[in-house]
């Protein structure tokens, strides 16, 4: 597996604390000279800022022991903090090129990245040339840990959260935010932050998941990623065109949102779509679409809007299709099945370890929500009558995302259980990492 490199970044010859101190000193001069242009500079203004930083460091650098040969490096690092997202800047650039899915910072200051198409997080390190790269586990080389300064991480997190008007603090230690698209983040991102002391360590725990700004196409899903075969793609496309109600199941990080975006893209343009998500991350371009997003409210839960409320609201918006990004609570599960039972076409996803587990999770969530007036038998009948297909995604033996099974769901139970009938299944014994094989089961 090849090592994937980033753009040129800090060589770490200049100590982090010196960079932080110099950045603090030049910040006032930059703010006075450029003002609000620092928030969203044009390319010409950004170049002016970089030149000004370089000039200021030539003046103040000697007081910090900065040698002439280190000015360019220090100026570039401070420019990343002032104009971009600090230590994240080279990783943001890679994400914009769709090389990265997610970046995490642990409370010990270590940084990891999830490359596009991978499920594992790889360590981010610095190679001998001073480039930050992410390498597979066990990869040997002359690397040093990529460990940004604490102040750099704090400033970067504050800058990300400030774009949506929130902040993380001891009074509000756990923050999740959806960062809107910008020139640096073309599709936006999802940020989750836990600050000390809730996060045990010197640094905050940070997850930054990058969104993609393009629809999921057959070329990506079938030809490049090989998540499913051309035959399965054809069958699922036909199922959507026929208005079938489909549940996508799988555990965290296997591509449920990706497959749901692709399925949604197959809905005809003339049909009205209402989506309910937590958070809003499905990407498909349709002319008659309403997107709604769960609101968790503040620390006290004030102004919260749960998924169940969104689903019930969606039913009153005359949708042809109801798309639920992920079913996490019983009210959402209950009203989604009720909606699909009453004639609404539906696409949804749920965290489950198998197609059968998806059925059990739906019924369990509904019971836990207080709808105990329904017996488990009645809930299974509700599922069977409201769902046509269950598509389960998981990892193959090489850790690659694949559609593992597709099951048809007859409307009647068999021996008191939902009668999941196999249609397609991934065959690990006949597959290789580069050539997955699926078998179609005749009805």
Characterization of the model:
Strands 1, 2, 3, 4, 5, 6, 7, 8 and 9 form a nine-stranded antiparallel beta sheet that branches. A nine-stranded mixed beta sheet has the order 12-11-13-14-10-15-16-17-18, with helices on both faces. It has about 450 residues and is an alpha+beta fold. The chain is built from twelve helices and 18 strands. It has helices at about 15-35, 45-60, 70-85, 90-95, 150-160, 220-225, 230-240, 255-265, 305-315, 330-340, 355-370, 375-385; strands spanning about 5, 100-105, 110-115, 120-125, 130-135, 145, 175-180, 190-195, 205-210, 245-250, 275, 290-295, 320-325, 345-350, 390-395, 400-410, 420-425, 440. About 35% of the residues lie in helices and about 20% in strands. Helix 1 crosses helix 3 (about 70-85). The chain folds into two domains: about 5-210, Beta-Lactamase (2-Layer Sandwich); about 220-440, Rossmann fold. The longest helix has 19 residues, at about 15-35.
């Amino acid at each position: 597996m090849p090592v994937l490199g980033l753009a040129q970044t800090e060589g770490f010859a200049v100590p982090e604390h010196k960079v932080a101190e110099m950045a603090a000193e030049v910040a006032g001069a930059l703010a006075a000279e450029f003002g609000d242009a620092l928030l969203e500079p044009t390319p010409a203004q950004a170049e002016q800022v970089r030149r000004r930083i370089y000039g200021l460091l030539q003046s103040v650098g000697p007081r910090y022991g900065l040698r002439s040969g280190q000015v360019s490096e220090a100026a570039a690092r401070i420019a990343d903090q002032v104009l971009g997202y600090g230590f994240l800047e080279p990783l943001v650039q890679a994400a914009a090129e769709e090389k990265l899915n997610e970046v995490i910072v642990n409370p010990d200051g270590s940084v990891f990245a999830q490359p596009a198409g991978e499920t594992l997080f790889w360590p981010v390190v610095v190679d001998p040339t001073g480039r930050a790269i992410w390498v597979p586990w066990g990869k040997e080389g002359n690397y040093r840990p990529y460990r940004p300064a604490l102040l750099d991480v704090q400033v970067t997190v504050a800058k990300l959260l400030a774009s949506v008007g929130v902040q993380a603090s001891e009074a509000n230690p756990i923050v999740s935010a959806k960062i809107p698209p910008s020139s640096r983040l073309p599709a936006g991102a999802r940020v989750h932050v836990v600050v000390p002391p809730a996060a045990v360590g010197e640094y905050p725990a940070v997850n930054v998941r990058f969104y993609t700004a393009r629809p999921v196409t057959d070329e990506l899903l079938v030809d490049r990623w090989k998540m499913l075969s051309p035959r399965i793609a054809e069958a699922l496309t036909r199922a959507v065109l026929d208005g079938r109600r489909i549940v996508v199941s799988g555990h965290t990080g296997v591509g449920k949102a990706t497959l749901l975006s692709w399925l949604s893209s197959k809905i005809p343009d003339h049909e009205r779509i209402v989506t309910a998500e937590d958070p809003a991350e499905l990407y498909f371009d349709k002319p008659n679409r309403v997107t709604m997003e769960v609101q968790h409210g503040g620390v006290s839960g004030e102004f919260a809007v749960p998924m169940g409320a969104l689903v019930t609201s969606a039913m009153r918006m005359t949708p042809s299709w109801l798309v639920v990004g992920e079913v996490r609570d019983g009210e959402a599960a209950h009203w989604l099945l009720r909606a699909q039972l009453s004639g609404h076409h539906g696409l949804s996803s749920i965290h489950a370890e198998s197609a059968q587990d998806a059925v059990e999770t739906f019924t369990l969530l509904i019971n836990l929500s207080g709808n105990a007036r329904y017996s488990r038998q009645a809930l299974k009948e509700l599922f069977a009558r409201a769902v046509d297909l269950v598509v389960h995604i998981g990892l193959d033996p090489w850790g690659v995302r694949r559609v593992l099974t597709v099951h048809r769901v007859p409307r009647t139970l068999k021996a008191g259980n939902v009668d999941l009938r196999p249609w397609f299944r991934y065959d690990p014994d006949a597959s290789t990492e580069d050539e997955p094989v699926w078998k179609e089961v005749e009805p």
